[in-house]
Exosome complex component CSL4-like protein
Amino acid sequence: MVKCLNEPNMLVMPGDCLLNHQNDIIASSGTYLKNGSIYSSVAGYLRITEQQESHFDDKDDSKTTEEGANDSLNTSQNQIVKRIVKVIRPGDRQVPFLEPGSIVTCRVIRITSSFAKCSICCIEDHILKQPYVGIIRLDDIHDGVSAQQQRLRQVNCCFHPGDIVLARVIAAGDNHQFLLTTAAQELGVVVAVNDWNEPMIPLNSIEVLCQRTFTKESRKVANIDLIA
């Protein structure tokens, strides 16, 4: 019997650490073992299945010919559960990949005067097994604004730690870091939170409102109605 143990649309990238290797885990296609851990060797969908195998143990190895006729009395059947880890690349559709042009969903984890640091958790509607670091620079927040005017704006007026942001990948950096942009009307904050982690609703393209305190805060709000 084979049983799937994980979400079917969990996306992994090459080099992602999937889990630690154990005696009951089998690294299958699309994976490799390194330093006691199982890693993905391709971009695809993680699949962890549980499979039960029957194992027969002899109770007495010194059986006579007459005793051999009664094997069922001298053997016991044990059920061994194995977990099989593989990465599947579907043949009928392209696997989303973190590359320039990819639309990603990320959470803002830190802001500075020059950029917002994010944790990328999804590509399109596919959940990533391992989050990646995304950087939204001040110059890449707004569209149609000159660099000089852009620098007059503040990152903390556009994003807040905990916000969920829709962004586009513009370049890949080192150490699994990616440069992101929200310089389009359909990109920006899709879920805003305040200092108390309370959700805020969008009022327009630059403001959100807390429904409990009725306070307003500035954000670079995404116009999700423009998303095809």
